[in-house]
Amino acid sequence: MKILNLYGGIGGNRKLWGETHHITTVEMNEEIATVYKKIFPDDILIVGDAHQYLLENFEKFDLIWASPPCQTHSSFRQNIGVRYRGVKPVYPDMKLYQEIIFLQNNFKGLFVVENVKPYYKPLIEPSFQLDRHNFWSNFDVEKIEFSRPKLRATQIPELQEFLGYDLSDFKISNKRQVLRNCVNPQVGEHILKFALLEHNKKADLAESTNK
């Protein structure tokens, strides 16, 4: 499949996807993008605005995965930071819902949008929940349980072991936060499995229709 991986980070969701797909990743932070390229040298890496890239290139792909910034939706930031620690409240970043609505109404392929469980009632009901995330998608995914450490108390060595990364050779600002932002690689692998099933089903249907 041709896969577009938006807001790629260091590739948590992509880590177990293997090398058989044509993967294009968009990441704005050059420091993080450098790490991604080192880990996944065969992927096409775009250093730029994922939101704009989606708008201009969505028709080129079979599967789109988007993980727009989650901090402004975070229940921890709002319920602990704002209420008790003096963190300044901010507007929720509406790129999340813009991308969901855009993909639902314009994209003919498969898509999944990932974000945290927010401090408010989601404006669009998620398709499913896995691990600590909400997902909006146009294909079905089996719900299963995943193990994970308690992230707020976990330090860099434990996060690296859990995610299967070794970032000791990289100089990254706030390395712990970069690791915490990663989607559990097993979640990414699980969702891709169901995307492939749906993609192959559509391909078989199209082939039988054309006979």
Task: Describe, in plain words, how this protein is organized in 3D.
Helix content is 38%, strand content 16%. The model has no long low-confidence stretch (mean pLDDT 93). Strands 3-2-1-4-5-7-6 form a 7-stranded mixed β-sheet, with helices on both faces. The protein has one domain: 3-Layer(aba) Sandwich (Rossmann fold), CATH 3.40.50. The two termini are 23 Å apart. It is globular. By secondary structure, it is α/β, with parallel strands linked by helices. The longest helix is centred in the C-terminal third of the chain and has 26 residues, at 185-210. It is built from 7 helices and 7 strands; from the N terminus they run E-E-H-E-H-E-H-H-E-E-E-H-H-H. A hairpin with a 2-residue loop joins strand 6 and strand 7. The protein has helices spanning 30-39, 50-57, 75-84, 95-106, 156-163, 175-180, 185-210, and strands at residues 2-6, 22-27, 44-47, 63-66, 110-116, 128-130, 133-137.
